[in-house]
Amino acid sequence: MTDAAFVSAVLGRLRGRLIVSCQPVVGGPLDRTELVVALARAVVGAGAAGLRIEGVERVAAVCRIAGVPVIGIVKSDLADSPVRITPHLADVDALAEAGAEIIAFDATHRIRPATVAALVARIHGHGRIAMADVSTRAEGRAAAAVGADIVASTLAGYVAGPEPTEPDLALVADLAADGFTVIAEGNVRTPEHAASALAAGAHAVVAGSAITRPEYVTRWFLEALGSG
Known about the structure:
Elements: H1 4-14, E1 18-21, H2 33-45, E2 50-54, H3 56-63, E3 70-73, H4 89-98, E4 102-106, H5 116-125, E5 129-133, H6 137-145, E6 150-152, H7 169-177, E7 182-184, H8 191-199, E8 204-207, H9 209-212, H10 214-224
Parallel strand pairs: 1-2, 1-8, 2-3, 3-4, 4-5, 5-6, 6-7, 7-8
Helix pairs in contact: 2-3, 3-4, 4-5
C-alpha cells in the first residue's frame, strides 16, 4: 500500500507549483525520447516542480534524470472503449516499474477495460500515488471515494461537446470545495490561467501544449493574426 508519509512528501513538493507535461505532438519533429528528456531537463532547470510524461520508455528515461516527481501515463487507442489514458492494469505495472511516483488514469464514467477502483488499488499496491483524470464533479467524487489521492480536471470538456480552449476553473473550484487534492490540467495556456487555477483552489497546475508543443502555440498566434 502507498505510505501516507510518501504521499504527503510528494504532494508537499508540488503544492502551489507548476507541473509541465512534456508530450510532443505525435509524429512531430520533437516526438523522440531524447528530445522529451531534453524538454524535461529544460523545464526543470527553469523551475518546474513536476513533470507529466507519456509512455513507459520515456517515463523511465525521464525518471533517471528528473529530480522532481513524475506523473506517468500510457495512452492507447482501444477498439472497444473511448478511454485512452492508462486504461489497463498492466499499464500501471509498467509505469510503476519505470519509476513514476504518480500514475494518472482516465476516471471518467465510460466503458473501460479496468474499473477505477481496480486501477487505484493496483497503483496503491505498487506504493504509488493515484491521480484520477476526470471531466465532472461526480467523477471526481467517485474516484476519491475509491481512494484516488489526487483528482485532476484533465478531461473537462473532452468527453462530450466541442473541445475547450480554456481551463475549467469552475470544476477545479467545485472539486477543491469537496476537500480533494486537485490538480488543474487542460488548456492552461497562459500564466494567468495558471494563477487563476491556484486561486480557484488547485493544489498544483499542469501546463503542457503552451510550453512543449510549439506547433500548437504557433497555430494560436496565426489564428490570432487571422492567418491560421
